[in-house]
Amino acid sequence: RAKSEGRGRWRFFEPAMDAAMQLRRALEIELRRALLLGEFELYYQPIVDVASRHVTGLEALLRWRHPERGLVPPDAFIPLAEEIGLIVPIGEWVLARACADAAGWPGAPRVAVNLSPAQFASRGLVEVVEAALRDSGLDPTRLELEITETVMLQDSQATLQTLHRLKALGLRIAMDDFGTGYSSLSYLQRFPFDKVKIDRSFTSELGLSRQSDAIVQAVTDLCAGLDMVTTAEGVETENQLQTLSQRGCREAQGFLFSRPQPAASVPEMLRSLSDETGPHGAGRDEPG
Ligand code: C2E
Ligand code: MG
Ligand code: MG
Ligand code: MG
Protein backbone atom coordinates (compact mmCIF):
# COMPACT_ATOMS: atom_id res chain seq x y z
CA ARG A 1 0.00 0.00 0.00
CA ALA A 2 1.03 3.53 -0.67
CA LYS A 3 0.85 4.32 2.98
CA SER A 4 3.32 1.67 4.04
CA GLU A 5 5.59 2.69 1.19
CA GLY A 6 5.44 6.25 2.45
CA ARG A 7 6.25 5.11 5.93
CA GLY A 8 9.25 3.19 4.67
CA ARG A 9 10.73 6.27 3.11
CA TRP A 10 10.60 8.14 6.37
CA ARG A 11 11.85 5.32 8.53
CA PHE A 12 15.07 7.16 9.37
CA PHE A 13 13.38 10.17 10.89
CA GLU A 14 10.10 8.80 12.05
CA PRO A 15 10.81 7.05 15.34
CA ALA A 16 11.97 10.18 17.16
CA MET A 17 9.21 12.30 15.65
CA ASP A 18 6.68 9.65 16.51
CA ALA A 19 7.81 9.44 20.10
CA ALA A 20 7.60 13.19 20.56
CA MET A 21 4.20 13.36 18.91
CA GLN A 22 2.90 10.50 21.00
CA LEU A 23 4.11 12.09 24.20
CA ARG A 24 2.45 15.32 23.24
CA ARG A 25 -0.77 13.57 22.33
CA ALA A 26 -0.72 11.65 25.62
CA LEU A 27 -0.12 14.83 27.60
CA GLU A 28 -2.96 16.52 25.75
CA ILE A 29 -5.38 13.74 26.68
CA GLU A 30 -4.15 13.77 30.27
CA LEU A 31 -4.55 17.54 30.50
CA ARG A 32 -8.14 17.40 29.32
CA ARG A 33 -8.82 14.65 31.82
CA ALA A 34 -7.10 16.63 34.59
CA LEU A 35 -9.51 19.52 34.09
CA LEU A 36 -12.54 17.21 34.18
CA LEU A 37 -11.31 15.29 37.22
CA GLY A 38 -10.26 18.35 39.17
CA GLU A 39 -6.54 17.57 39.35
CA PHE A 40 -5.47 21.24 39.31
CA GLU A 41 -4.60 23.12 42.50
CA LEU A 42 -3.59 26.65 43.34
CA TYR A 43 -0.57 27.44 45.48
CA TYR A 44 -0.04 30.92 46.85
CA GLN A 45 3.11 32.98 47.32
CA PRO A 46 3.17 36.22 49.34
CA ILE A 47 4.18 39.60 47.93
CA VAL A 48 5.74 41.84 50.55
CA ASP A 49 6.11 45.58 51.02
CA VAL A 50 9.86 46.23 51.14
CA ALA A 51 9.73 49.03 53.74
CA SER A 52 7.24 47.55 56.21
CA ARG A 53 7.55 43.87 55.32
CA HIS A 54 3.77 43.58 55.40
CA VAL A 55 2.18 41.13 52.98
CA THR A 56 0.40 43.15 50.29
CA GLY A 57 -0.64 40.34 48.00
CA LEU A 58 -0.72 36.62 47.22
CA GLU A 59 0.10 35.31 43.77
CA ALA A 60 -1.93 32.27 42.72
CA LEU A 61 0.31 29.70 41.02
CA LEU A 62 -1.13 26.70 39.22
CA ARG A 63 -0.09 23.14 40.02
CA TRP A 64 -1.21 19.83 38.59
CA ARG A 65 -1.62 17.04 41.13
CA HIS A 66 -0.89 14.16 38.76
CA PRO A 67 -1.98 10.73 40.01
CA GLU A 68 1.39 9.13 39.17
CA ARG A 69 3.83 11.96 38.65
CA GLY A 70 2.96 13.97 41.73
CA LEU A 71 2.95 17.75 41.76
CA VAL A 72 3.65 19.06 38.23
CA PRO A 73 4.82 22.70 37.85
CA PRO A 74 3.11 24.99 35.33
CA ASP A 75 6.06 25.28 32.96
CA ALA A 76 5.61 21.56 32.21
CA PHE A 77 2.06 21.89 30.89
CA ILE A 78 0.99 25.51 30.36
CA PRO A 79 2.78 25.92 27.00
CA LEU A 80 0.90 22.93 25.56
CA ALA A 81 -2.38 24.01 27.19
CA GLU A 82 -1.84 27.38 25.57
CA GLU A 83 -1.15 25.84 22.17
CA ILE A 84 -4.26 23.66 22.15
CA GLY A 85 -6.50 26.36 23.61
CA LEU A 86 -7.12 24.41 26.80
CA ILE A 87 -5.63 27.29 28.79
CA VAL A 88 -8.92 29.14 28.32
CA PRO A 89 -11.07 26.74 30.40
CA ILE A 90 -8.14 26.07 32.76
CA GLY A 91 -7.72 29.82 33.24
CA GLU A 92 -11.41 30.17 33.90
CA TRP A 93 -11.10 27.59 36.65
CA VAL A 94 -8.06 29.43 38.07
CA LEU A 95 -9.95 32.73 38.20
CA ALA A 96 -12.97 31.20 39.92
CA ARG A 97 -10.83 29.24 42.40
CA ALA A 98 -8.54 32.16 43.27
CA CYS A 99 -11.46 34.55 43.82
CA ALA A 100 -13.29 31.99 45.97
CA ASP A 101 -10.13 31.27 48.01
CA ALA A 102 -9.45 34.98 48.54
CA ALA A 103 -13.07 35.65 49.53
CA GLY A 104 -12.67 32.95 52.18
CA TRP A 105 -9.69 34.76 53.73
CA PRO A 106 -11.27 37.91 55.07
CA GLY A 107 -8.68 40.52 55.89
CA ALA A 108 -6.17 38.81 53.64
CA PRO A 109 -4.44 40.93 51.01
CA ARG A 110 -5.09 41.08 47.30
CA VAL A 111 -4.85 37.96 45.12
CA ALA A 112 -2.89 38.07 41.85
CA VAL A 113 -3.90 35.77 38.98
CA ASN A 114 -1.78 35.07 35.89
CA LEU A 115 -3.49 35.39 32.52
CA SER A 116 -2.00 33.74 29.46
CA PRO A 117 -1.91 35.53 26.09
CA ALA A 118 -4.45 33.09 24.57
CA GLN A 119 -6.76 33.64 27.49
CA PHE A 120 -6.38 37.37 27.19
CA ALA A 121 -7.27 37.22 23.50
CA SER A 122 -10.23 34.90 24.05
CA ARG A 123 -13.77 36.14 23.66
CA GLY A 124 -15.60 36.63 26.88
CA LEU A 125 -12.59 37.19 29.14
CA VAL A 126 -14.17 40.24 30.75
CA GLU A 127 -17.39 38.30 31.39
CA VAL A 128 -15.43 35.38 32.86
CA VAL A 129 -13.65 37.73 35.27
CA GLU A 130 -16.93 39.41 36.13
CA ALA A 131 -18.55 36.04 36.85
CA ALA A 132 -15.64 34.96 39.08
CA LEU A 133 -16.01 38.16 41.10
CA ARG A 134 -19.78 37.93 41.31
CA ASP A 135 -19.92 34.22 42.21
CA SER A 136 -17.26 34.57 44.91
CA GLY A 137 -18.41 37.91 46.25
CA LEU A 138 -14.79 39.06 46.23
CA ASP A 139 -14.33 42.82 46.31
CA PRO A 140 -12.85 43.68 42.87
CA THR A 141 -10.17 45.84 44.51
CA ARG A 142 -8.79 42.60 45.98
CA LEU A 143 -8.11 41.14 42.53
CA GLU A 144 -5.05 41.79 40.40
CA LEU A 145 -4.45 40.29 36.95
CA GLU A 146 -0.90 39.66 35.72
CA ILE A 147 -0.20 39.78 32.00
CA THR A 148 3.07 39.48 30.11
CA GLU A 149 4.56 41.62 27.40
CA THR A 150 3.52 39.10 24.74
CA VAL A 151 -0.05 40.32 25.18
CA MET A 152 1.00 43.82 24.07
CA LEU A 153 2.26 42.43 20.78
CA GLN A 154 -1.22 41.44 19.76
CA ASP A 155 -3.62 43.96 18.27
CA SER A 156 -2.90 46.87 20.54
CA GLN A 157 -6.26 48.59 20.05
CA ALA A 158 -8.13 45.47 21.13
CA THR A 159 -5.67 44.91 23.98
CA LEU A 160 -6.09 48.43 25.21
CA GLN A 161 -9.85 48.14 25.09
CA THR A 162 -9.85 44.87 27.05
CA LEU A 163 -7.53 46.36 29.66
CA HIS A 164 -9.81 49.34 30.13
CA ARG A 165 -12.89 47.13 30.39
CA LEU A 166 -11.13 45.00 33.02
CA LYS A 167 -10.04 48.04 34.97
CA ALA A 168 -13.58 49.37 34.88
CA LEU A 169 -14.54 46.33 36.99
CA GLY A 170 -12.40 47.84 39.75
CA LEU A 171 -9.48 45.44 39.66
CA ARG A 172 -5.79 46.10 39.11
CA ILE A 173 -3.45 45.11 36.28
CA ALA A 174 0.20 44.14 36.62
CA MET A 175 2.77 43.62 33.90
CA ASP A 176 4.59 40.37 34.69
CA ASP A 177 8.19 39.34 33.91
CA PHE A 178 9.11 42.85 32.82
CA GLY A 179 12.36 42.99 30.90
CA THR A 180 12.30 39.48 29.44
CA GLY A 181 10.17 39.74 26.34
CA TYR A 182 9.92 42.38 23.71
CA SER A 183 9.94 45.06 26.35
CA SER A 184 9.17 48.49 25.24
CA LEU A 185 9.05 51.44 27.56
CA SER A 186 6.19 52.81 25.48
CA TYR A 187 3.97 49.95 26.75
CA LEU A 188 4.24 51.44 30.20
CA GLN A 189 2.96 54.74 28.94
CA ARG A 190 0.29 53.39 26.59
CA PHE A 191 -1.28 50.72 28.75
CA PRO A 192 -2.95 51.31 32.12
CA PHE A 193 -0.78 49.20 34.44
CA ASP A 194 -0.93 49.60 38.19
CA LYS A 195 2.18 47.53 38.75
CA VAL A 196 5.31 46.29 37.01
CA LYS A 197 6.96 43.06 38.13
CA ILE A 198 10.67 43.05 37.46
CA ASP A 199 11.75 39.63 36.24
CA ARG A 200 13.75 37.29 38.44
CA SER A 201 16.68 37.35 35.98
CA PHE A 202 17.41 40.94 37.08
CA THR A 203 16.82 40.28 40.79
CA SER A 204 19.25 37.40 40.85
CA GLU A 205 22.06 39.66 39.63
CA LEU A 206 21.33 42.45 42.12
CA GLY A 207 24.40 43.57 44.02
CA LEU A 208 26.55 41.44 41.70
CA SER A 209 26.21 43.24 38.42
CA ARG A 210 26.25 47.01 37.96
CA GLN A 211 24.09 46.59 34.86
CA SER A 212 21.28 44.82 36.72
CA ASP A 213 21.39 47.40 39.49
CA ALA A 214 21.13 50.15 36.90
CA ILE A 215 18.19 48.49 35.13
CA VAL A 216 16.30 47.98 38.37
CA GLN A 217 17.01 51.59 39.33
CA ALA A 218 15.80 52.88 35.97
CA VAL A 219 12.61 50.79 35.95
CA THR A 220 11.85 51.77 39.54
CA ASP A 221 12.34 55.48 38.83
CA LEU A 222 10.31 55.34 35.65
CA CYS A 223 7.43 53.49 37.34
CA ALA A 224 7.43 55.88 40.26
CA GLY A 225 7.08 58.74 37.78
CA LEU A 226 4.15 56.94 36.13
CA ASP A 227 2.48 56.13 39.48
CA MET A 228 3.08 52.42 39.12
CA VAL A 229 4.25 50.09 41.87
CA THR A 230 7.37 48.00 41.19
CA THR A 231 7.66 44.45 42.50
CA ALA A 232 10.88 42.48 42.25
CA GLU A 233 10.36 38.77 41.56
CA GLY A 234 12.56 35.95 42.81
CA VAL A 235 14.06 37.64 45.88
CA GLU A 236 16.10 34.99 47.64
CA THR A 237 18.62 36.85 49.83
CA GLU A 238 18.70 39.65 52.40
CA ASN A 239 21.34 41.28 50.23
CA GLN A 240 19.00 41.48 47.26
CA LEU A 241 16.26 42.87 49.49
CA GLN A 242 18.58 45.55 50.81
CA THR A 243 19.67 46.58 47.32
CA LEU A 244 16.02 46.74 46.25
CA SER A 245 15.24 48.95 49.19
CA GLN A 246 18.11 51.29 48.26
CA ARG A 247 16.87 51.41 44.67
CA GLY A 248 13.40 52.41 45.83
CA CYS A 249 11.63 49.21 44.75
CA ARG A 250 8.31 49.04 46.60
CA GLU A 251 7.56 45.32 46.78
CA ALA A 252 9.38 42.01 46.77
CA GLN A 253 8.37 38.40 46.18
CA GLY A 254 10.51 35.32 46.54
CA PHE A 255 11.74 32.34 48.50
CA LEU A 256 13.28 34.72 51.07
CA PHE A 257 9.76 35.27 52.41
CA SER A 258 8.05 32.04 51.47
CA ARG A 259 7.79 29.45 48.77
CA PRO A 260 4.36 29.04 47.20
CA GLN A 261 2.09 27.20 49.68
CA PRO A 262 -1.14 25.24 49.26
CA ALA A 263 -4.34 27.22 49.83
CA ALA A 264 -4.98 25.46 53.13
CA SER A 265 -1.67 26.78 54.53
CA VAL A 266 -2.28 30.42 53.59
CA PRO A 267 -3.90 31.64 56.84
CA GLU A 268 -1.02 30.13 58.84
CA MET A 269 1.54 31.58 56.40
CA LEU A 270 0.01 35.05 56.74
CA ARG A 271 0.01 34.73 60.53
CA SER A 272 3.62 33.71 60.76
CA LEU A 273 4.78 36.37 58.29
CA SER A 274 3.02 39.08 60.29
CA ASP A 275 4.34 37.70 63.62
CA GLU A 276 7.95 37.77 62.62
CA THR A 277 9.89 40.96 62.33
CA GLY A 278 12.28 39.56 59.78
CA PRO A 279 11.59 37.47 56.73
CA HIS A 280 11.74 33.74 56.98
CA GLY A 281 10.75 30.70 55.09
CA ALA A 282 13.85 30.36 52.98
CA GLY A 283 14.14 26.78 54.09
CA ARG A 284 10.47 26.00 53.82
CA ASP A 285 9.68 23.55 51.12
CA GLU A 286 6.62 23.36 49.00
CA PRO A 287 4.94 20.26 50.36
CA GLY A 288 4.62 17.71 47.56
P1 C2E B 1 5.38 33.93 37.17
O1 C2E B 1 4.00 34.44 37.06
O2 C2E B 1 6.48 34.88 36.86
O3 C2E B 1 5.48 33.36 38.66
C1 C2E B 1 6.65 33.41 39.45
C2 C2E B 1 7.40 32.10 39.39
O4 C2E B 1 8.65 32.25 40.07
C3 C2E B 1 6.68 30.96 40.11
O5 C2E B 1 7.02 29.77 39.43
C4 C2E B 1 7.34 30.97 41.48
O6 C2E B 1 7.26 29.74 42.16
C5 C2E B 1 8.76 31.30 41.10
N1 C2E B 1 9.49 31.92 42.20
C6 C2E B 1 9.00 32.75 43.15
N2 C2E B 1 9.98 33.16 43.97
C7 C2E B 1 11.12 32.58 43.56
C8 C2E B 1 12.47 32.61 44.03
O7 C2E B 1 12.83 33.28 45.00
N3 C2E B 1 13.38 31.88 43.31
C9 C2E B 1 13.03 31.13 42.24
N4 C2E B 1 13.98 30.43 41.63
N5 C2E B 1 11.76 31.08 41.77
C10 C2E B 1 10.81 31.79 42.43
P2 C2E B 1 5.92 28.69 39.04
O8 C2E B 1 4.88 28.58 40.10
O9 C2E B 1 6.64 27.45 38.62
O10 C2E B 1 5.22 29.34 37.77
C11 C2E B 1 5.93 29.55 36.58
C12 C2E B 1 5.13 30.36 35.60
O11 C2E B 1 3.96 29.65 35.17
C13 C2E B 1 4.57 31.65 36.19
O12 C2E B 1 5.60 32.64 36.24
C14 C2E B 1 3.47 31.97 35.21
O13 C2E B 1 3.99 32.57 34.05
C15 C2E B 1 2.96 30.59 34.86
N6 C2E B 1 1.75 30.33 35.63
C16 C2E B 1 1.61 29.91 36.91
N7 C2E B 1 0.30 29.79 37.25
C17 C2E B 1 -0.41 30.16 36.16
C18 C2E B 1 -1.82 30.27 35.87
O14 C2E B 1 -2.70 30.03 36.71
N8 C2E B 1 -2.15 30.66 34.61
C19 C2E B 1 -1.22 30.98 33.66
N9 C2E B 1 -1.63 31.36 32.45
N10 C2E B 1 0.10 30.90 33.91
C20 C2E B 1 0.51 30.51 35.14
MG1 MG C 1 3.02 36.05 37.64
MG1 MG D 1 6.62 36.77 36.87
MG1 MG E 1 8.23 34.55 35.56
From TrEMBL:
Annotated segments matching region Disordered: 260-288
Biased composition (Basic and acidic residues): 273-287
Domain of life: Bacteria
Domain EAL: 24-274
Protein name per its UniProtKB record: Diguanylate cyclase
Lineage, broadest ranks: Bacteria, Pseudomonadati, Pseudomonadota, Alphaproteobacteria, Acetobacterales
Full protein: residues contained: 541 to 828 of 843
